[in-house]
Amino acid sequence: MSEFDLIRRFFTRDTPHAILGVGDDAALLQVDAGNVLAVSSDMLVSGTHFLPDADPFLLGHKTLAVNLSDLAAMGAVPRWAVLAIALPEADEAWLAQFSAGFFALAQQHGVELVGGDTTRGPLNLCVTIFGEVPAQQALRRSGAQVGDDIWVSGRLGDAALALAHLQGRIALSDAGLAACLPALHQPQPRVALGLALRVIASSAIDISDGLLADLGHILDASQVGAEIEFATLPLSPTLRAHASLPLARQCILSGGDDYELCFTAPAARHAELSEIAARLGLPLTRIGKIVAGCGCIVHDAAGNPLNVETGGYDHFR
Predict the structure, then answer these.
(1) What topology is assigned to 3-134 in CATH?
(2) Edge-to-edge order in the sheet of strand 77-87
């Protein structure tokens, strides 16, 4: 099977919302009037971002999901994607499952694959995604204000806890592992939440490298500080059962791979956020507040500061 046969068979679909899609030297895209492009790229490398024996269907899902999460944090509507993929070999069974997982999520969010590249090499997956958002409604990291509440969607730490089990750093029960694995292998990008937050949130970011690290980007960009109540952080029953362990606290605060949204909003918008949570069927939890100063303090149940590591995942440390 040639490179071009591979592309035609596994990665070519109709692209009715693109002027020109797969098959030429470049795609041609048209953004709706009044909107701007939101563009993001993420690379997943075998052995770094996923285990070499990862299920290809779930890997196809996650490859697109991590990019969709970035657009969700900007309040953008996903539209198009390009995929660059390096493959050790043209394994047809693997490609069929990977592309099925990728396109299942793409169809769910109305994303069209309009181009990319394939080459032989160590397994490496890179998506660039394009979305659109009204220019004045794009969510950014730089808008947090003193007095704003800090919120997160969903639950924190399950993906990192599942990875810790797979790496032999903790032993979960079969039921506990089964409860946590979907967060690691099949994260759900919060696109609908991002759209709902356009005129409510003052800042937003997706949690990919850990809560404290990613919230820290908001604090740096907005030039403010934060106080968080550890007891309010939303945890699954599995993680709560292990919460006394230092490893579990690390998973919760800096484990990464959550792909939930962390955002700030004025306290007066609390009722609107409760309505959004009910409408989307997605828990939204207030975990703290924005304060003057810099950095983030995490308080325990007694109100005392916890001694925590604020650094999240960093490829070069």
Answers:
(1) 60s Ribosomal Protein L30; Chain: A; (3.30.1330)
(2) 35-45, 124-134, 77-87, 112-120
